[in-house]
Every structure is written in C-alpha cells, then in structure tokens.
C-alpha cells in the first residue's frame, strides 16, 4: 500500500503533461471566445468531479473497477463496460505517443524514420506498462520530482525574458466577458483527469482520505497551470500569430536561450523533461487499460482479491501473461501502422473527439459509482 501523496501525483502529472498537446490547442483556438470563463468552469467542474469520484471509489478500499463491477453489476454489463473504458485509456496513451513522435520529427530529428521513433517509445512503454501498480507509482514520483526543477526553471526563464510581450496577454484579457464554450470546458477539464486512474490504482491505496485543508490546492494549481498554458505562448507569438503554431509550447521553448549553459537551446531541456513525463503518463494509461481488459477474464479471481496483487512469489498466471502479450502486441502493431498514415490534421481531430467523449464518459462514471455504492450499502444491510 502507498501513501496519500501518490494520489496527488496522479493529478499533478496529468495536469502538467497536458501543457504540451491537446489542451493548449483548444485554449488558443478559443482565446477570443470566452476562454477565461471556460477555464473557471473547467476548474470548478474538474475539482468537483475529482472530489466526488475519489470519495466514491475509496468506499471500495483496495479494489479496482474489475473487482467492483464483477461484484455489483450483472455479467452481461461488466465485459462491455470494461472493454469500452479499456479502449478509452489505450486511446489516450496512443494519442500522446503519436503526438510525441510528430514533435520529435519536427523539432529534434526530422531525418529519422517515424517508425523507428515509435518503435523506441513502444519498447519502453510496453515493457513498463506490465509492471506492478505500486512500481509505476514509485516511478511516477521519481520522474515528477526530477522534472520539477527543470519545469520551474523553464517557466521562470519564459516569464522574465524581454521577448515576452505583456501587451498581447492584455489584448486577450479584453475578451474576458465573452460567453464560454463547451468545447473549451471539455478540453480544459482534461487537466484534472488524472484522478480517473484510480480505476486501477485504487488497489494500491489503503485508507485513502480527502481533507479539504489539502484539497484546495487542486483547483488553485489547476487554475494556475491552465492560465500559464494559455498565456505564455501568447506572450511570445502574439494574440494572432500563436494560432499558427501546432505545438505552441515547443515553439515557445525554441524561442528561449540559455546563454551560460552547456546546451544553449532551452528546447532540448524542455523536450527531455516532457518526453520522460509523457512516457510515464502513457505507461499509466496503458497499464490501466491493460488491467481493465484483463478484468474481463478474471471474474472469479477478482471477486476474491485484486487482480493486480501478485502472489508472494511475484509470478503472474500464464493466462494473464497471454492476455497481456496478445493485447499489447495488437496495440503496438496498430501504433506502428498509424505512425506514417495519420496526418497532423486527423490527429488533432481525433484528439478533440476524445476530449469531448471523455468529458461525458467521466460524468457517467460518477453516476455509475453512485449506483454501485448504493448497491454495496443495500447488500450490507441484508
């Protein structure tokens, strides 16, 4: 079992990593269409759903979705639900991987083969996603703590740079009173979505509690991260020109220099920092997706104990090994196939569709958990 701080690591990792891809693109495209009110609504919605989801799932201490569903839902409903949400988690990781392959080719090494880059990423992700849940949480803490100083340095470097144009930021602020858009709320709220990984990681927590004197940091940090995500690229590229940059934060990092450091371009430090965190985030997504899919085949075991808890010898059953191997091979083959066949426009469209579906699917999860808590209380009275 792990301590409560790892719960906040899941949120913080998700919030920080979304600064580079899907979220800034949505915020920038709607910068003149009520983006600030949309951010406030997203912070309120994300904080509320995070609090409600956590308070509900901790009532099933040491259990993940497979165990909970197999205990309190009909068998005909369990498998479709687990498969559906397993696909959601795999798609989330896949979009992030495809985006980072595109980023690598555009900013780091345009001459290398896209398949070679994807293959290198897949070797790391596929191997790590099969680790124990607690091991992935420990790795998340290490990577986040090692990356944090670099993130703070890059942010300070960006804000104190003379090239940062505050007039562009003030120009966007003049649109403060425009009406918010749902598409912006769904995109911005993705920064809070790390809590949903408790669908599997709840197995590793014991006596997880939420205290309001600590939880207020979630909306405050989420609001600051979203504002920084939106305003820093605008300060460098202008309120109009920022829309021409697909990966606005990488373009911003490429505008910065470290005059007294070994490596002059901040872009390389930014790339290494966010590559390491992105790969860890993909490992988390695929680990959750893998465990959800395995839950379709471990009904009897799940009712007795958690499917992720290894035996004392640490060995997994041969059945689980085959399930993992077949599923990960299929997903990896699909990723390599898509690498050179999905263009930037289609990837952006897929990302936007995913953000919209995720928004409503998480709301459905909370309603479902309310029903399951009611079922649990009702069965306890009998």
UniProtKB/TrEMBL annotation:
Domain of life: Bacteria
Residues spanning the membrane: 7-29, 35-58, 78-100, 112-129, 136-160, 180-202, 214-236, 266-288, 322-339, 351-374
Entry keywords, A to Z: Membrane, Transmembrane, Transmembrane helix
Protein name as annotated: GerAB/ArcD/ProY family transporter
Native organism: Paenibacillus brevis
Lineage: Bacteria, Bacillati, Bacillota, Bacilli, Bacillales
